[in-house]
Structure formats: C-alpha cells, structure tokens
Amino acid sequence: MKAAILSEFSAIKNVLLQQFAIYLIVGLVIGISMGTTIAMVACISAMAPILMVFTFAGYDNMNGWERFRATLPVARESLVIARYLNVLISSIATLVVAFVIAMVLGQLSPVLPLDAESVQTIADEMRHPLTVLGGGFAGMSLILMFSSLLQPFILRYGLTKALRWIPAALMVLFLGVTLILPEVIDAPQFIADFATWVEDPGNIPVVIAGLAAITLGAYCISCAGAIALYRKKEL
User: pLDDT by residue (tens digit) across 12-24?
Assistant: First the structure.
C-alpha cells in the first residue's frame, strides 16, 4: 500500500506545490474582492478535489503511466485505494493551506485595500475561526462527494470514455433528487430551519462532524465500487 501511495504522489507532487501557489493568489483575490474569508476558504477548498482527480486522470493518459503503474508489485485494490487516499490527503492539505491564508488575511485586513464594511466583516469572522474552517470543510466535502461519482468511471474507462458516461449519470442523479426530495420533505421550511441552525457558531463542530461522516461514507462506497470495476479492467 505504501508503495502505491508513494508512486501516485511522486507523479503529482510538483503539480500539487504549483497548485498551492495558485490557491494563494486565487484566495487573496477572492478574499479581497468579496471581503470575506469564509467564501475564500470555501472556494479554495472546493477547487482541490476535482483538480486532483483530473490531474491524476491526465497523468494516467500520459506516457503509459497507467500501464507502468499496473506492472508494480502492488495489488489492483491497493492502487485504487492509493488514488483515493492521495486525492483525500491533497484536499485536506489544501483546506489547511486555505485556512492559514484566511488567518493571515484576517490579520492584514486593516492595511489592505478594503472598505470599512469588509474589514469589519472579516474581523467578525476572525472571532469565530471554526466557522471559517467549517465553510472550507463544506466546500471540500461537497466536491469530494461529487468526485466520488467520477472516480470509479475514470479508473475503469479512462478519462476520455468516462466523460461520455458521467453527464448521463449526473442527469439521472439530478432528476432523482429533484423528483424525490419534494415528496419527502417540506423543502423551503426545512432549508430555512437548517440555515438558522447552521448559523449558530456553537453548532459548527456538529456540522463538521456530520459532513465528515457523510463524505467519508460516500467516499468509501465510491472506492469499493471503483475497486470492483478496476479489477475487470484490461491494461
């Protein structure tokens, strides 16, 4: 397993460092232009999972890397788990970087080209750093769950063929959600009550724990499906 993780990481470590520099620039632009650290952290954290999925998929199609990786003395199951772990670890690392950028921005906000209202908004956010972290965690979790839909298809069929199936799968999911949810819950009242509950800083730890459980559950199910599909792949 360790060999699989390291072989995957070695292929993209330079790209990951470059992306951290991009996240810094993008984060500062978003934070200064929008005058909020929560949106900044959420945007940066949401970028990482999907970028990493497509970065790995791109490397699979370059220079026969996918076939070379399959010749390593590592089980196919370990290769899939390594891919999922690398995407997850990279996403968490990006969340940490985004949170640090937010804290620095919060300290520098009085001397940055921000209006008084934005400075006050950021100062209020700095009083509840866990809320800032929660915003980033929500962005990361949402895109991680979305990437969970993509990875089994990408690993089984490759990026090019997967893109033929993914839009249809997402359409079916979208139709299922839009048709079933209105029959199950009173959406407007439910959303309003939930939004009010989430806005309470005291509930943020519960929100993060709940999101973590749901995201990891979906991620593990996706990984199991990807393992089953990848076993049948001919390289």
Answer: 777 777 877 887 7
Look-up: residue for tokens 């919060």? 106
Cβ 147 vs Cβ 49: under 8 Å: yes
- Report CA-CA distances (Å) from 168 to 67, 113, 149: 28, 45, 12
Q: Nearest Cα to 14, choosing from 98, 90, 101, 80?
A: 90
For 86, other C-beta atoms within 10 Å of its C-beta total 23
For residue 160, give the 3-state DSSP assignment.
Answer: helix
Q: Would you state the structure tokens that stand for residue 203, as one six-digit string? A: 């509930």
Q: Where are the alpha helices (DSSP H) in the chain?
A: 2-34, 37-60, 65-70, 76-108, 116-126, 129-184, 187-198, 204-231
More confidently predicted of 43 and 193: 43
Contacts of 23 (CB under 8 A, 6+ apart): 44, 47, 48, 94, 97, 98, 101
Spans of all domains in the chain: 1-232
Which range has the worst mean pLDDT, 10-19, 63-72, 73-82, 173-182?
Answer: 173-182
